[in-house]
Amino acid sequence: MKLKNSPVRNLVFLYLLLLFTGCAIDEAEPQKEKQLTLAQNFMTASQKKVMLKIAKRHHIDLTILELSPLAIRKAIKKHPWEPGFDLIMLDGLAAQKSLAGLSFQYHNPAFATIPIGVSYVPDSVVKVSHFKDLSQQYLWSAADDKALPILKANLAYVYRSREKNKQLNQVYKDLMRGFKDHQLTFDNYHLLNTLLICRYDTYIHVLKKADKRRQFTFALDKKNRFYADYMSLSIIEQSPQYITAKKFVHYLDYMRDHKAAFRNTFGLSQKPQVTRQPTVQTLLKYLEK
Question: Hey, what domains does the chain have and what are their CATH numbers?
Fold first, then answer.
């Protein structure tokens, strides 16, 4: 016996109609982009372009703000949970000092490693194997304002027992005095001819472009051993966009670890294989005020 237009049959028909209509609407609607705001202190136009491209690929509407570390700190102190941004990316230990005492939902002070070293134009006479050579044998100049403070912080850490050892303290003082005596003021002549202390990003983006002959050495005598500056990545405390921000952090981690083009754009090295590097927290204690 057939039940024409029975209530049960009508309900089943209505259910199927709503089900297929809903699926059609879901397929027709484009995936909505989620909002995310990043505060940073260093990016060039090309670096911003890369960040925006990564965000767009993952359906994130990213806004990039350019703020000084001090301005970022003031914004967080004034509005801890709504400072006007969700993510913070700071370049350099000196910038990271501005974050001291602040709380974050996520914080990686060593998100990216930027080695420092010596750039040189190949010459049969000049053979730099260690930073100490610049204190004892060769004249040099600083190609940026970030590498030398990092070098001094690392050396202060290496010679950290000097306060209890007079002989070690004298070695340290002689080393630092030698650096000062051999340093030249940076100018266009030195850009093309002189030994230059610099960060790896300066070497890639400035020095190598000025003179293709230039090379770069970590200047520490040991393979895979180097002194480094660091880039931090943080998510503000109780961010309403935490899930999206954490996913974006994951995307950036992947790009840093697996994409050489990304590392070159930001002047980063691959993740260091050494285990004896001092931590960011340790270096911050030795960074000159």
Answer: 34-286 (3.40.190.10)
Q: Is the dihedral of CA 110, 289, 71, 267 positive or negative?
A: negative
Task: Give CA–CA dist 40/66, Å, rounded.
Answer: 5
Closest CA to 249 of 89, 33, 34, 69: 89
- With the CA atoms of 241, 36, 91 and 249 taken in that order, what torsion angle do they form, in degrees rounded to the nearest 10? 60
Instruction: Kindly give the interhelix angle for 45-57 and 242-258, rounded to the nearest 10 degrees.
Output: 120
Q: How far is CA 259 from CA 202, 219, 231, 254, 270, in A?
A: 20, 26, 17, 8, 10
What is the percentage of the chain residues whose pLDDT exceeds 90? 73
Task: Please state, in angstroms and as integers, the Cα–Cα distance from residue 55 to each residue in 40, 112, 193, following that order.
Answer: 15, 18, 41
User: Which residue from 57, 64, 54, 112 is spatially nearest to 88, judged by alpha carbons?
Assistant: 64
Name the maximum alpha-carbon separation found in the chain: 107
Q: Which residues contact 182 (CB under 8 A, 6 or more apart)?
A: 134, 135, 136, 138, 139, 140
The pLDDT of residue 32 is 63
Q: What does pLDDT average to over the chain?
A: 88
CB-count exposure of residue 50 (10 Å: 0-12, 13-18, 19+):
middle
- The bridge status of strand 215-217 relative to strand 228-236 is unpaired
Q: How confident is the model at residue 149 (pLDDT cuts 50, 70, 90)?
A: very high
| Residue with token string 């700071």 | 90
> 86, exposed or middle or buried, with CB in 10 Å at 0-12, 13-18, 19+?
buried
pLDDT for the residue 8: 55
Smallest CA-to-CA distance from 105 within 252, 239, 247 is with 239
Q: Which of 120, 86, 78 is nearest to 214 (CA)?
A: 120
Q: Report pTM.
A: 0.84
Confidence of residue 25 (pLDDT cuts 50, 70, 90): very low
